[in-house]
Amino acid sequence: MASFDILVTGGTLPDGTIADIGITGTHIAAIGDLTGSEAGETIDAAGDLVSPPFVDPHFHMDATLSYGTPRINASGTLLEGIDLWGELREQATVDEMVARALDYCDWAVSLGLLAIRSHVDTTPDHLNTVTAMLEVQEKVKPYLDLQLVAFPQDGFLRSPTGRENLIRALDMGVEVVGGIPHFERTMGDGAASLKELCEIAADRGLLVDIHCDETDDPLSRHIEALAYETQRLGLQGRVAGSHLTSMHSMDNYYVSKLLPLIAEAEISAIPNPLINITLQGRHDSYPKRRGLTRVKEMQAMGIRVGWGQDCVRDPWYSLGTGDMLDVAFMGLHVAQMTSPQEMARCFTMVTEENARILHLDGYGLSVGNMASLVVLDAGDPIEALRLRPDRLCVISKGKMVSKQARNDARLALPGRPGSVRRRHKVPS
Ligand SMILES: [Zn+2]
Questions:
Q1: Neighbouring-strand partners of residue 148
Q2: Any bridge partners for residue 391, and if so which?
Q3: Integer Cα distance of 284 and 287 in angstroms
Q4: Which of 77-81, 147-151, 196-200, 290-294 shows the lowest per-residue confidence on average (mean pLDDT)?
Q5: CA of 106 to the centre of ligand 1 (A)
Q6: 284-324 pLDDT tens trace
Q7: DSSP letters for 127-160
Q8: CA-to-CA distance for 273 and 371, rounded, in angstroms?
Q9: What whole-number distance in Å separates Cα of residue 82 and Cα of residue 268?
Q10: Where are the beta strands (DSSP E) in 25-168?
Q11: Which of 126, 318, 345, 366 is deepest in the core (most CB within 10 A)?
Q12: What residues does 146 pair with on adjacent strands?
């Protein structure tokens, strides 16, 4: 008779399969009908969705949970946010940033979000941001994969020490190369920054993730240069373009040329729907653009697209929970991904597709993979998006890291049931 450390029984996997999952040590030892097996701990997941963990491909952990410090963003714009952050990063101590980030990671774990790619601002010469985030990365390593991107917020070329500090951050152990070409002084400087950043990544064997064209300017076309450099340096499959909001406003004929270039270069796209629709279109009257990139059109071309969170309670965004289902829910609405297949894909975008963007090893519900999963109080991925329900149980690398009791509302209505769960199945 098989014996496991943890046995999750009767759960519904994202593809609709009903299966037990047996965990031994840090890995998944068996999936299927494991009736009669013994286990140190058994989780009854009958009727519940069992999913691989959520993955966030775009976040700013050095700024999170700082909302209101030193003051709130009065205009609500991207540029006032950048100014505010410029003050905050000089005032915040390493310990403060570590404490805020660890608080956020607690939220993340409770929501089944177990892998995060975070951009770290490499602008200040003291690099306290980098010191703090490397410390957080080490502290959360047993239960959360934190991947760090060296991000020259004030420009790689525009900031006097932009280049030098980005390289110092990589030498300190930051593992992905970032950039912000649309914030450099000229289009030419933007392109030059991408050339150099991609060369640095190619030399060091690193991944690339660029804040690319986060603007409403339809002529902001740095994604074209990023695709060119990616192919020139053989970085296919290793580069991501974050935001790409200018594509929302671009001329359709130009986009018809651009999409195949992105596909050829195997560049992944990371729109951040909560933030993009909040920050973009601020110079518009009506009609008012919402700045989300062309998600469905990219997917139709075979381009990988993952939804990112970007901000939670920081100089750019006053709300946010850390729940990737909130992110996917908003993305689904704004991109109008409303068919059953498109809705299910939105769930995959915050799990499997984001895991691929991060190049995570051993991710997913298969035998031999890392034993990381989340049990949701929903019947399937689409219901999870609709309800954004409680995470009943979160297992990371073979350890139970969060548990929540099922919390049905109790009704007091004549002739009606005593409790309600708000689940709803399509009649078959
Ligand atoms: Zn960002």
A1: 118
A2: 376
A3: 7
A4: 77-81
A5: 21
A6: 999 999 999 999 999 999 999 999 999 999 999 999 999 99
A7: -HHHHHHHHHHHHHTTT-EEEEEEE-TT-TTTST
A8: 30
A9: 25
A10: 27-32, 38-44, 49-51, 54-59, 113-121, 145-151
A11: 345
A12: 116
Backbone angles phi, psi at 7, to 5 degrees: -125, 120
Task: Please confirm whether the linkage preceding 181 is cis (ω < 30° from 0).
Answer: no
Residue 409 Cα, ligand 1 centroid: separation in angstroms?
A: 37
What is the rounded CA–CA span in Å between residue 324 and residue 274? 11
Q: Phi and psi of 396, rounded to 5°?
A: -125, 120
Per-residue pLDDT reduced to its tens digit, 49-106: 999 999 999 999 999 999 988 899 998 888 899 899 999 999 999 999 999 999 999 9
Distance 375 CA to ligand 1 centre (A): 29
What is the percent of the chain where pLDDT is above 70? 100
CB atoms within 10 A of CB 267: 27
- Beta-sheet pairing, 49-51 with 54-59: unpaired
For the chain, domain boundaries: 3-52+364-410, 54-358
The H or E element that residue 342 is part of is helix 340-349
Show which residues are catalytic: 214
- Contact criterion met (CB below 8 Å) for 376 and 391: yes
Please state, as a whole number, how many other Cβ atoms lie within 10 Å of the Cβ of residue 296.
13
Q: Rounded to the nearest whole angstrom, what is the distance from the C-alpha of residue 413 to the centroid of ligand 1?
A: 47
Cα–Cα separations (whole angstroms), residue 104 to 62, 210, 401: 10, 23, 15
CA distance 279 to 82: 12
* Angle in degrees, CA 259, 265, 266, rounded to 5: 90
Which homologous superfamily does the CATH classification assign to the domain defined by 54-358? Metal-dependent hydrolases (3.20.20.140)
The topology (CATH level 3) of 3-52+364-410 is: Urease, subunit C; domain 1 (2.30.40)
Residue carrying the six token digits 């609500």: 76
